[in-house]
Amino acid sequence: MNVSIVGSGYVGTTVAACLADLGHEVVTIDIDEDIVDAINDGESPIHEPGLDELVAEHGGGRLRASTDYEEILDTELTMLALPTPSNDDGSIDLQFMEAGAASVGEALAGAENAAADPHLVVTKSTVVPNTTEDRLAPRIADAGLERGTDFLVASNPEFQREGTAVADFLNPDKLVFGTDDDRATELLHDLYAPLREAADGDVPVVETGIAEAEMIKYANNTFLATKVSLINDIGNICKEFGVDAYEVADAIGLDDRIGEQFLRSGVGWGGSCFPKDTDAIIAAAREQGYDSAVLSAAVELNDAQPKRLLALLDDHVDVSGKRVAVLGLAFKPGTDDIRNTRAVPVIEGLQERGADIVAYDPVATENMRERYPDIQYADSAATALEGASGAVVVTDWDEFAALDAEFEDMADPVVVDGRRIIERRDGITYEGLTW
Ligand SMILES: NC(=O)C1=CN([C@@H]2O[C@H](COP(=O)(O)OP(=O)(O)OC[C@H]3O[C@@H](n4cnc5c(N)ncnc54)[C@H](O)[C@@H]3O)[C@@H](O)[C@H]2O)C=CC1
Ligand SMILES: O=C(O)[C@H]1O[C@H](OP(=O)(O)OP(=O)(O)OC[C@H]2O[C@@H](n3ccc(=O)[nH]c3=O)[C@H](O)[C@@H]2O)[C@H](O)[C@@H](O)[C@@H]1O
């Protein structure tokens, strides 16, 4: 199939490279010329395991990039993988989606020979229920197009995680096709047929309505975010009793009804999606007159975890004027993404305390340096720890588990672990956030 993807960021590039690898001809359209050039040169514009290889193999070939929306005319289907950030009040900001939808409409309207089949425009981005229907289809139609004849719309939310995006896309737990038209459903089946054939096991397809598909994405993300907040809540209780929350989590995870995943308690959830999506659906529901008590509590608890981490550090050392190591800046291991990382409230809390911060991350340092140019950055965990009067662990990078003699070089070996990655040992004062 010939496929176009508007927006070549984390999702757009991963989906495009994987679809090209599965045999489709794919073009991504982005306003950022550096991204476009990188892809055409066979270089991945983002850090994501496995993506370099796919872009190197297909970039400039079955995978192309362009700044020109006219490219969609040679394709049967266009996915919108544009940002859906938050407004100041937490509600969803649809400006990028609406601009993209309008550009798609203009390009389709400019076609010299109207295509025999209507072009399918698929919402890949995470949007609140009814966005495709009420906000995007009308923007496409604004160019003088008729829905049903000139174009169709659908929702096909994405469930990949950063750090494992390629593997997740190629072996999803489910595919969700939200449509109101048989032809749209058929095109989505054609698109994913090679993936379902190549996947390790059966990939269930959920055929549903467009708004239901949009809501499934929010239900998925907020359920998982709330699960982590719940285990953090339980973990905080465990800590009060001197009980190891990880032993408790391992045991309850054996109950199939609970499941073993997303039970790692600690400094909380960050990233480009859990925080913004939770805020967006809370705001959207409130606009309809419903206040979600559980989701609001999940956010509140998440905001409190970095404060609890710093309070544990305060119990052992007054960090004012002292060197403090921050280990891990990315919102999770395997990515250089710092969007909504828990490192931000931790760094800001340490700054308020007057600490002399030295931070280290294996891949996210440059991103963080742009945001906080005034703190120090070490090129290894060992250098960050040298002479430090305290260390806080924010990201569970594997390499932190191997730290050992490095703690001996600390001025005051107090380690507060927000991710259960460092073993308790003699010679350091160790505090786990929930254990
Ligand atoms: N990051 C992730 O792992 C996941 C993200 N999502 C959702 O996917 C959507 C996209 O997220 P990301 O890929 O992380 O965003 P991103 O910010 O990494 O990428 C968006 C891209 O769109 C481009 N862009 C902006 N305006 C444009 C326009 N008018 N025309 C063409 N290109 C334009 C930007 O230059 C950027 O490259 C969001 O709704 C997000 O919630 C869903 C699942 C996973
Ligand atoms: O919509 C999205 O963008 C994506 O959001 C999450 O993926 P992602 O944010 O990449 O990463 P996760 O692995 O879900 O982790 C999110 C946060 O929760 C934290 N977390 C996760 C699991 C856990 O047990 N404990 C915990 O604190 C992580 O450290 C991280 O900060 C979802 O897992 C994906 O399914 C979804 O597609």
Structure description:
The chain is an alpha/beta fold and 435 residues long. The protein has helices at 10-21, 33-40, 51-58, 95-109, 131-141, 165-170, 182-198, 210-241, 245-253, 274-287, 293-316, 343-352, 365-371, 381-385, 398-401, and strands at residues 2-6, 25-29, 63-66, 77-80, 119-123, 151-155, 175-179, 205-208, 323-327, 356-360, 376-377, 391-393, 414-417, 429-432. It has two domains: 2-208, NAD(P)-binding Rossmann-like Domain (Rossmann fold); 244-434, 3-Layer(aba) Sandwich (Rossmann fold). It has 15 helices and 14 strands. Helix 12 (343-352) links the parallel strand 9 and strand 10. The radius of gyration is 23 Å and the shape is elongated. The N and C termini lie far apart (52 Å). The model has no long low-confidence stretch (mean pLDDT 97).
| Total of helices | 15
Ligand identities? 1,4-dihydronicotinamide adenine dinucleotide, uridine-5'-diphosphate-glucuronic acid
Q: State the low-pLDDT regions, or none.
A: none
User: Order of strands across the biggest sheet?
Assistant: 3-2-1-4-5-6-7-8
Order of helices and strands: EHEHHEEHEHEHEHEHHHHEHEHEHEHEE
Shape: elongated
CATH topology of the largest domain: Rossmann fold
Cα-atom radius of gyration:
23 Å
Sum up the structure in keywords.
435 residues; alpha/beta; Rossmann fold; 2 domains; eight-stranded mixed beta sheet; six-stranded parallel beta sheet; 15 helices; 42% helix; elongated; binds 1,4-dihydronicotinamide adenine dinucleotide; binds uridine-5'-diphosphate-glucuronic acid; UDP-glucose 6-dehydrogenase
